[in-house]
Amino acid sequence: MSKLFPKLLIVTTVPITIRSFLLPLIKHFRDLGWQVDGMAQGLNSDRECVAACDRIFDIQWSRNVFDPRNLLAGVSRVKKVVAEGNYDLVHVHTPIAAFVTRYALKDVQATKVIYTAHGFHFYRGGSVIKNAIFLTLEKLAGKWTDYLVTINREDETAAKKYNFLPEARIYYTRGIGVDTNYYTSRQVTPADVQQVRQELKLSPSDTLLLSIAEFTPRKRHRDLLNALAKVANPQVHLALAGEGPIKEDIEQLATVLGITNQVHFLGYRTDIPTLIQAANAVLLVSQQEGLPRSIMEAMCLATPVIGSKIRGTQDLLEDGCGLLVELGDTDALAQAMIQVIEDPDSLSIMAEKAQAKMKDYDLEQIIQQYTDIYAVALKNNQD
Questions:
Q1: DSSP 3-state assignment of 187?
Q2: pLDDT tens digits, one per residue of 273-303
Q3: DSSP β-ladder status, 323-325 and 263-267
Q4: What residue spans in the chain does CATH classification 3.40.50.2000 cover?
């Protein structure tokens, strides 16, 4: 590498991945003098990402596995951008972008490719057929990967078990970092919390449960509503923050279950710390996660958490840091909701323990881990 400062290209399928998770990483390395560029579908339209990167590149691919553009247009675009950009490192995230980019660069020796897996598409409890397909694809793509970063223990174990890469080139990090200075009660005033509760028309005696999740089937919003109906307590309210394709279906389910007065659809929100502080507990009952950000944010703010016993969520909540329920067990989920009401003291103890645990997930620690990984990759690029 003859350049004074390294050149890094960050690649994701869609801009929200960069905007939600990677801007602090980009800022850190740009502040060091690196050139950091970004690539994703529609990235030109995302002002925050455009401002964060030195240069940005649009690419025609999608999150749909079967979209022919992923290979037909994606491969040639990646090859062209990387060849012209003369990058030292390409750091790719999300499954579609990761597979296409690694395939496109499989014969490029001058650029090291790092893949952060935000949760493999095969996982314990997943469909046998889908697991087999995605496991096969990861085994194949591992041959085109210089360094693999996993963010939960199940994925780390799988990557080593199936020999995606030599173990020395497989890393584990505690996610991609959470800013514990931002997710702190110091940032939220009592007036902010009161405003949220007034917005939802809650009385002081009402219990507020919060879930922050895109409305997609794998987030299992239906389980939340079915459990709430089983609690059969009109003073328990459920706020759902997010948007997504099945939102209307979930609204209809609330009507069918007769709990429309207790379920609040908040849409896309930017006041997440305030919402978490206003809640008595945060819930996430997904069937598939990498390392869920909403749970980490709640843990930082010492708000109790209820989560499904799955990869990633279990990493965070085990050892008494939250309540874990079996996936799809709405009876157990209802009992956990009741525990929020009837035993707040034990949940507060869990929440305090969870808050202390978040020190190991702090953004600065994760950035240092990536600094070390990049240093190894750059050194090997010179050798």
A1: helix
A2: 999 999 999 999 999 999 999 999 999 999 9
A3: unpaired
A4: 7-177+362-382, 185-361
